[in-house]
Write a structure and sequence with these properties.
It is a single chain. With 505 residues, the protein is α+β, with helices and mostly antiparallel strands. The strands form three sheets. The protein has a five-stranded mixed β-sheet with strand order 2-4-3-6-7. The longest helix is centred in the last third of the chain and has 41 residues. The protein is extended. 30% of the residues are buried.
Length: 505
């Protein structure tokens, strides 16, 4: 026998409003996509207008709903992250969204890494084009220009000149029928070494560092007083520096412990691979990258974090529309004609949409700045030195704890975003890595990878090391790694297996 019954079930559900969905989308957009979105909104909504100014959000008017955030934060402000809270508008989204505790969990559609721009061909300037463009900045003869162009073509991926001038002279004469003296080549190289970035055209590490210390100075005496101790260190005590004998250096230079630490800090700011600062390895063509953040480290260790809004203009609600709507609302709908009521509804929709869009941009800006400031705080040694091995293990949850944002918001804020630093341009995912163990302590996987690369760089190329042997040597260095871990690191560094690294006599 069939029967029908009626039951009542109480269920609580949360649904995202259109405004919250819009905020989530804007937070995930890189600056180029944001510009397109803003341009589209300006065309579709007559109540939204752009405030054309040089610095977009820096010149916003608080009365128009923008709170005057400059987008630039200094070192002192990086220390205040623990007191920051979560933007209220993000809370509902965060509660409904999935959690990504590690960058590897982020959906493929939202991921970005260095292979993205290395694999895409484009017509942007190459490493060599950027240097050759600088030739026009100097008043030189055609013959000198020809020599400089050849020297540029001889640079390696570090920006160094790996061959002797004698070899360059021979190559020019044999292959190009160009006769040049060593003195002429020296003069051409000296001109090349004045190009940006400083250190280009160096023949060894010491010369590379000296070029950076002497930047803008024709003689050692012209080097500013604050850089004289660093000049003395690199010029006169380089051999001790290479064996890390800071005790001897301090003794010979009559340094206090505090000044020794300062000198070490100043030294870490020099870039031993100036070619990498130009954003391209030899033989590769890069996709044009617009950084979403700019992180600058000055000579004294002051770090400034700036959100790059690109060509996105500041926005405000159209004054005329806002005033007309206020007048309609004050009069009351009963006193309005049908046409006026239609106009009131039209303005309510457009003005409300404009205000929501401006508010979403504000929240996006705040979330992105909080996220970038937290990354700089946790990875400060890297932003001071540019040393990848100084990166500490870090995941999205670490940033969420620092900022008070939900992990999913951090995921959106770091998705497809790039940062321009003193040492090059990096995707934000570059700063996230899992942990490896060294002497029982957690260290970044990149430190383990650097140790592995160093072992392979110093192996006998006629009898290269197997992964088992490399694992044993890394264990002697304190890294708790197995053979398959070595294989994974090696693959990540694009280093072939032992038999492919073998070189015949």
């Amino acid at each position: 026998m069939l029967s029908q019954t009626t039951t009542q079930v109480q269920r609580q559900q949360q649904r995202l409003t259109p405004q919250q969905v819009q905020l989530a989308r804007l937070t995930e957009m890189p600056v180029e996509a944001l510009y397109d979105e803003v341009d589209k909104e300006l065309k579709e909504n007559p109540s939204l207008e752009a405030v054309r100014s040089a610095d977009s959000y820096d010149s916003t008017d608080a009365a128009d709903g923008m709170d005057g955030m400059t987008g630039a934060e200094t070192t002192e402000e990086l220390e205040d992250l623990d007191s920051q809270g979560t933007p209220d508008a993000m809370e509902t989204i965060d509660a409904l969204d999935s959690t990504y505790s590690d960058p590897d969990d982020i959906p493929a559609a939202a991921q970005t890494n260095s292979s993205r721009f290395e694999a895409v061909a484009s017509d942007t300037q190459s490493f060599y084009d950027q240097l050759q463009e600088q030739i026009g900045f100097f008043n030189i003869s055609d013959s000198q220009k020809e020599l400089i162009e050849y020297l540029i073509g001889s640079l390696d991926e570090r920006g160094w000149l790996p061959v002797s001038l004698q070899q360059v002279q021979d190559e020019l004469e044999v292959y190009h029928n160009i006769t040049a003296t060593i003195d002429e080549l020296e003069q051409a190289l000296h001109t090349l070494q004045r190009f940006e970035p400083a250190g280009i055209g160096a023949r060894n590490l010491q010369e590379c560092l000296l070029l950076q210390v002497r930047q803008g100075s024709q003689t050692d005496a012209a080097v500013p007083a604050e850089r004289q101790p660093l000049l003395c260190l690199v010029r006169d005590h380089f051999e001790l520096l290479m064996i890390n004998r800071w005790d001897k250096i301090a003794q010979r230079m009559h340094l206090t412990d505090a000044y020794t630490h300062r000198l070490q800090r100043d030294l870490r700011r020099l870039n031993p691979r100036p070619g990498s600062a130009m954003g391209e390895a030899v033989g590769k063509s890069l996709q044009q990258i617009t950084p979403d953040f700019i992180v600058e480290t000055d000579y004294y260790g002051q770090i400034t974090v700036t959100l790059n809004n690109g060509y996105v203009p500041a926005l405000r609600v159209n004054d005329d529309d806002a005033q007309i709507l206020a007048a309609y609302d004050a009069a009351g709908s009963k006193t309005l004609s049908r046409t006026e009521r239609d106009a009131q509804a039209f303005l309510h929709e457009n003005v409300g949409r404009a205000q929501s869009f401006i508010e979403a941009l504000q929240n996006r800006q705040r979330s992105l700045l909080l996220t970038m400031r937290a990354i700089v705080k946790l990875q400060r040694p890297f932003f001071e030195s540019g040393d990848e091995t100084a990166l500490r293990p870090m995941n999205l949850e670490d940033i969420a704890r620092q900022t008070g944002l939900h992990v999913s918001t951090v995921s959106r804020a770091t998705s497809s975003k790039w940062v321009q630093t003193t040492f090059g341009i990096y995707p934000l995912r570059f700063f996230f890595s899992s942990a490896s163990q060294q002497d029982g302590e957690e260290v970044s996987v990149r430190k383990a990878e650097a140790a592995l690369k160093d072992i392979i760089d110093h192996e006998d190329k006629q009898s290269p090391l197997s992964d088992d042997t490399i694992a044993q040597q890394m264990q002697q260095l304190g890294f708790d790694v197995a053979r398959r871990t070595v294989s994974k690191y090696r693959d990540r560094l694009s280093i072939p297996v032992a038999r492919m690294r073998k070189k015949s006599i």
